[in-house]
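Sequence only, no structure available. Ideas?
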Amino acid sequence: MEKLVLSENELAQHWGVSPKTLQRWRSEGRGPYYMKLSKRVVYPLAEIRAYEHSALHASTSERANGHSPASRSNLVTAKEAAIATSLPAYMFSNKRIREAVGMPCVQINSSLRFNLEEVMKWASRRSAESDE
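Reply:
I predicted one. Tokens follow.
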């Protein structure tokens, strides 16, 4: 039977990093997507391959310019989202307001992040609704 996931220790050994590095990456929202099954963390092989593909670069200048073949996320802080949407920062930082207006956000451990693409779509819909 083909193995579909790698454990944290198996992936750390495969990449030559410590399990602590993978743990830190998860808390920072970096690295491949993972599943947490009770207390066990596993990484689907498809996600590992996708992450490895996104780390491929043709040159150092491509990487320095922020261009990658497959950008996996577009997560920004509340301040960055407020600047991008020209909305007040308190809308992003105040939980009650976020929930009341249905603002999309992602909780990564103790950090709150916003997918800029989703927030821009949300802001566009909100603007269209207020114009009606």
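The two ends are 57 Å apart (CA to CA).
Hope that gets you unstuck.
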